[in-house]
Here is the input.
Amino acid sequence: MHNLIGRHLIGGLAAAGIAILSGTAFAQEVGKVGVDWLGNDIVIEAVKDPKVEGVTCHVSYFDRGVIDRLQKGNWFEDPSDSSISCRQTGPIRIGDINLGEDGEEVFKQGISLIWKKQVVNRIYDKANDTLIYLSHSRQVQDGSAKMSITSVPLYGQAVEWSKGKPQ
Here is the structure.
């Protein structure tokens, strides 16, 4: 058990270091719901967009317990399922965001020992003046089609763009 805690601590510190270097957001756990007696939980985290002040995303995902890992094997991986909801939580100030079709990565965390990541991408829908947030998993192979999407409309809002609103 202590070894498992140590591994999570080391992994968390490494992820924090990578997040600092890559400019991605940090997640703060705001809820945890136990779903069975095996120690499996649904975790809910708040993620603030590092380049869009005033927007907070809540991401939920399944966290397998130790007993479940012992019973089913596959020790080092959590399911790809996740859900996301983003809302305006203050005045919106948009920094230098990527306006390309594939947007940019806002948040990333490991859901397996090495290869599988839970990712949140932000895409700006210029035609509808809306920020779109996509939660999905990324794997080296056998990618998952499990995803969740949410949006934050900017229309009619007092939005401040650091480089001016895209035309």
User: Anything to note?
Assistant: DSSP finds two helices and nine strands in the chain. The CA atoms of residues 48 and 56 lie 5 Å apart.
